[in-house]
Amino acid sequence: MISALFVTFGFAACAQKLDASKVPAAVKAAFAKQYPGITAGWEREDRNYEVNFKQNGNTMSALYEANGTLTEAEMDIKVSDLPATVQSYIKEHYKGKTVKEAAKITKADGTVNYEAEVSGKDVIFDAAGKFIKEAKD
Questions:
Q1: Which residues, in sequence order, are bridge partners of residue 15?
Q2: CATH of the domain at 120
Q3: Structure pTM?
């Protein structure tokens, strides 16, 4: 998973592995309701909780506040599945560089972003493929 994604959106850079017993009941309940029957691994991201899991063969993660509110979900995608505008931007602004990983991020309000990991940086785009920002991976 691209755990540094959450750094891009204002969370701590260091994820700490976390035993499920230390995850608040509200967070575990919200995850179980949204993703029933899924086994997952937990990490602490600043004041939030990141859960990493697989669903229908997709590698995913979700970020929850301590009260169980989902803030965003991320799904790894093939680099070739990035919007054409994202791929064009990367070719132009990161000449000769390879996209190592790609992800589709869905915020709690339904807003979609795309992330491409290039040269150790996360490059973030909106749903239309317009560049938003770059953050250290």
A1: none
A2: 3.10.450.360
A3: 0.82
